[in-house]
Amino acid sequence: MTPKYLHLEMRGNIAVVRLARPAKRNALGDALIVALRDLFENLPSETKSAVLCGEGDHFCAGLDLSELKERDASQGMHHSRMWHAALERVQYGPVPVIAALQGAVVGGGLELASACHIRVADESAFYALPEGSRGIFVGGGGAVRIPRLIGAARMTDMMLTGRVYNAQDGERIGIAQYLVPAGQAFDKALELAGRVAENAPLTNYALMHALPRIAEQPADQGFFTEALMAAVAQSAPEAKRRVKDFLDGKARKVQKS
Ligand code: 1HE
């Protein structure tokens, strides 16, 4: 059963996960965060890729501020760790996740988008970290993931000054990998999810689980881990079949876009 405010729909082997609380701009309360974790932990076994989207004009307004009550330090830490557990399930779950972004992608909404593997934004998207002006700090992994996308200097500026990036600048600085006309983010995300679903599962696994770890390793260790991952991936029967298909002229060529 998918809980209130979170919908799961299978489109073939693609899981479409929708934040469904448009009246509150898909703000993320505790129950929704736990539901997100459970959903990504229990995706149907046939799932090959996922699209994460938000209903209405906005992807997500971040933390549900109406739930932000006085917490002591210990409760605050556990709350943040709950977000970490959920967003780790998104990033290191079974399948690549493509976020479809429109309107507000702010606060915890940007943290959630940052945990996805590909971000597709339409022209209405905008990005902010209003935590700075609300007197709080990021707590959903943003301090780790967002600097890796845009650099610590830009994140610092967003939080210190309340800077809002529009969709064009969001793509320029590396938040979204794709920028599409207004209203087309979901369709583009679904198209990309279809393409991702065709990959060999071990290739997707390597990109999700090995690449981010290799990228954090010192070069010498990274080269070694890469060699191990490459050996595992190319030894799979599926890799051999795909290479043979190409050599036999049966596989898609790389084409200029
Ligand atoms: C909310 C929230 C929310 C909207 N929590 N209720 N995030 C923020 O600081 C962003 C706060 N939200 C906004 O700046 C704006 O709402 C938006 C730019 C996202 C959208 O504006 P708009 O004009 O379309 O909608 P609205 O009229 O502001 O909001 C509609 C309703 O949603 C309204 O409630 P209503 O009962 O008056 O209809 C808003 O109160 C409600 N709403 N956003 C609760 N966030 C792991 S730590 C993460 C820390 C953070 O994420 S901090 C950043 C929180």
What does this 3D model show about the protein?
With 257 residues, the protein is α/β, with parallel strands linked by helices. The chain folds into 2 domains: 3-197, 2-enoyl-CoA Hydratase, Chain A, domain 1; 201-247, Lyase 2-enoyl-coa Hydratase, Chain  A, domain 2. Helices cover 49% and strands 15% of the residues. It has helices spanning 30-41, 73-91, 108-115, 131-134, 142-150, 152-161, 167-173, 185-197, 201-216, 219-235, 237-247; strands at residues 6-11, 14-19, 49-54, 97-101, 104-106, 118-122, 126-128, 165-166, 178-180. The chain has a 6-stranded mixed beta sheet, with helices on both faces. The protein has a 3-stranded mixed beta sheet with strand order 5-7-8. Helix 1 (30-41) runs parallel beside helix 2. The radius of gyration is 19 Å and the shape is globular. The model has no long low-confidence stretch (mean pLDDT 95). Residues 24-25, 27, 58, 61-66, 83, 104, 106-108, 130-131, 134, 136, 138-140 line the site of 3-methylmercaptopropionate-CoA (MMPA-CoA). 3-methylmercaptopropionate-CoA (MMPA-CoA) (1HE) binds next to strand 5 and helix 4.
Distance between the termini: 41 Å
**CATH fold-type name of the largest domain:** 2-enoyl-CoA Hydratase, Chain A, domain 1
Small molecules held by this entry: 3-methylmercaptopropionate-CoA (MMPA-CoA)
**Helical stretch count?**
11
How many strands, what sense, and barrel or not for the largest sheet?
A: 6 strands, mixed
In the sheet with the most strands, the strands line up as: 1-2-3-4-6-9
